[in-house]
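Contributing: when you submit paired examples, paste them exactly as shown. First protein:
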Amino acid sequence: MLVYCDTNVYCRPLDDQSQPRIRAETEAFLDILERVERNEITLVGSDILIAEVRRISSVPKRSLVELYLAHCTRHIPASIQIARIADELVKHAQIKPKDAFHIASACCGHVRYFLTCDDRVTSKSKLVSKLTKRLGFGVTVLNPLEFLPLVNAEAQNEKGAQNATV
């Protein structure tokens, strides 16, 4: 399963953990990383992701985020196609350009799930899914907290299918 997380997901463990939502999103992200280490999920990175992380002014924070990024085993380089898809997302979904470039990178990486903690992006998830399908991709935008139940359900379905064939 291919997954692309935007910068705010990678930064979540470094945010103020006294807020319950932030703590829960952090725990979800750390669970995702554990699943990456067990080869259940493949994290996909991109040039836009690397560029954003390089702009983090705090050296300790940037270094920690770079450690998380090291879990990405696939990389999507910048391209004209990404710019065109991002332009469509900005025009038709009113997504901010940086978010549109992340989603467009996910499209070009043939990623199934795009994870973000940004409510402005998740509130447009249906529109983004519709637009990306129309463009020939079909990316589902989710918060990490919404993503984990889907992963668990898929794992249960696979386990059930394996048991049925035994």
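Second protein:
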Amino acid sequence: MAQNYFYTDKIRETLGKEMGLTNLCAVPRMVKIVVNVGAGDAVQDKKVIESIKKEIRLITGQNPVVTKARQSIAAFKIRKGLAIGVKVTLRSKRMLFFLEKLLKIVFPRIRDFRGVSEKSLDGKGNLNIGISEQTLFPEIEYDTIDRIRGLEITIVTNAKDDQSAKKLFELLGMPFVK
């Protein structure tokens, strides 16, 4: 909650001045954070999805949605409608708490972390980050997991281009590669 005030009081005004915007509603802001975990091994074992759901629920504090295959792929033994992953969309307070946890707890725990690459920006103002293992989050105990899995984090903004989104992320505290 405190970070929301931090954005409205400090970041929005600073970013508006840097970009030359007089209307504060035109200043870029975060819209949502999507956390996604793919489970290719769910084809053989149906319990995998349940364990991933439990882990993502612990990490995000919100119940995840199971994603299903849109079409059949014979080479991967996937049929249409088969559960192949889990995702969560975070907004408002949960989004801010998750971002703060990501910046202050998870990134410092990554070995040899040099920062987030600018190539992670997708050209439309969104940032895509891949985390190699879920054990970097403090809620996950190493003894309780069945397998190390990566997760994808997409931070969606209403910025029109990468430069304004990068300024927003820098003011929020995102460590970019120098």
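If you have annotations for the second protein, write them as plain sentences, like these:
Strands lie at 30-38, 65-68, 83-90, 127-131, 151-157.
The radius of gyration is 18 Å.
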